[in-house]
Amino acid sequence: MFKKILIANRGEIACRVIKTARKMGIQTVAIYSDADRQALHVQMADEAIHIGPPPANQSYIVIDKVMAAIKESGAEAVHPGYGFLSENPKFAQALEAAGVAFVGPPVKAIEAMGDKITSKKIAQEAGVSTVPGYMGLIEDAEEAVKISNQIGYPVMIKASAGGGGKGMRIAWNDTEAREGFQSSKNEAANSFGDDRIFIEKFVTQPRHIEIQVLCDAHGNGIYLGERECSIQRRNQKVVEEAPSPFLDEATRKAMGEQAVALAKAVGYASAGTVEFIVDGQKNFYFLEMNTRLQVEHPVTELITGVDLVEQMIRVANGEPLTMTQDDVKLTGWAIENRLYAEDPYRNFLPSIGRLIRYRPPEEMASGPLLVNGKWQGEAPEGGHAVRNDTGVYEGGEISMYYDPMIAKLCTWAPTRAEAIEHMRNALDGFELEGIGHNLPFLSAVMDHPKFVSGDMTTAFIAEEYPEGFDGVDLPVEALRKIAASAAAMYRVAEIRRTRISGRMDNHERKVGEDWVVSLQGESFPVTVKADQGGSSVAFEDGAVLRVASGWTPGDQLAEIDVDGGKLVLKVGKISGGFRLRTRGADLKVHVRTPRAAELAALMPEKLPPDTSKLLLCPMPGLIVKVNVEVGDEVQEGQPLCTVEAMKMENILRAEKKAIVSKINAAAGDSLAVDDVIMEFE
Amino acid sequence: MKDILTELENRRERAREGGGQRRIDAQHGRGKLTARERIELLLDEGSFEEFDMFVAHRCTDFGMEQDRPYGDGVVTGWGTVNGRMVYVFSQDFTVFGGSLSETHAQKICKIMDMAVQNGAPVIGLNDSGGARIQEGVASLAGYADVFQRNIMASGVVPQISVIMGPCAGGAVYSPAMTDFIFMVKDTSYMFVTGPDVVKTVTNEVVTAEELGGASTHTKKSSVADGAFENDVEALAEVRRLVDFLPLNNREKPPVRPFFDEPGRIDNSLDTLIPENANTPYDMKELILKVADEGDFYEIQQEHAKNIITGFMRLEGQTVGVVANQPMVLAGCLDIDSSKKAARFVRFCDCFEIPILTFVDVPGFLPGTTQEYGGVIKHGAKLLFAYGEATVPKVTVITRKAYGGAYDVMASKHLRGDFNYAWPTAEIAVMGAKGATEIIYRADLGDAEKIAQHTRVYEDRFANPFVAAERGFIDEVIMPHSTRRRVCRAFASLRNKKLENPWKKHNNIPL
Question: Could you give the domains of chain B?
Answer without folding.
Answer: 2-242 (3.90.226.10), 267-425+464-492 (3.90.226.10), 431-462 (no CATH)
